[in-house]
Input
Amino acid sequence: MSETVSIRDLGNGVRLVALDRPEKKNALTGAMYDAMRAALTEADADEGIGAVVFAGLPSVFSAGNDIADFAGSLAKPFSEAPALHFIRQLARTRTPMVAAVDGIAVGIGTTLTLHCDLVYASPAARFRMPFVELALVPEAASSYLLPRRVGRLKASEMLLLSEVFDADAALSLGLVNAVIPSDLLLDHAVAQAARLAALPRGAVQATRALIRGDQAEVEAALEAEAAAFEERLRSPEAQERFRAFLGRAKPGAA
Output
């Protein structure tokens, strides 16, 4: 356990990265981002790890950023934020990634899945990206990746209006591979990850690169978002939204 992220190597070349902060609906802190980034970096360097599975325990994927923790980090430049370091590693990771989404997936809980090679969701999954509601902009290259998955108009609905969409909608849009019952979800994701890990590592990585296309464009979008995100963080609009959000004492958000 590393600051409420459980990282375990399950055998068969599979590493499980499980968020386990149920009292805050798996809202992510800087320490959790650091732990997840390290898990991905180490997986790329370890010939024995052929796939990484992201999951949320119990019965919730992630409520997004812990806003109190995030707001407390604003004294430093956003370029030093653990969230940004994790997002950069997420985009560059060579090891196949699988997501098992059960329950709410807010903000990074949704945008993380755009970088995964396989995504499975339970019927209880609910996806939402409320960046604009918080007077922010999208992150994790979602402003680039999402329109290319679902089209510009649907992406606008999701990113500008922060529309909630469920597992069936995600399936119809091609954002998840299958909807799996909650009690079978993690086992299914791990089994699929083991299949990936059993394949020739070099061939898997080369095929991933071909499927994903121009990595430079993804990273350019990520950096453009990061610059806009930092500008928005310092804006009076965002400061007002953060104060209002913290006043309601709800966990998570972006």
Summary: Residues 50 and 201 are 7 Å apart (CA to CA). Residues 249-253 have pLDDT under 50 and may be disordered. Strands lie at 5-11, 14-19, 51-56, 97-101, 104-106, 118-121, 126-128, 165-166, 178-179.
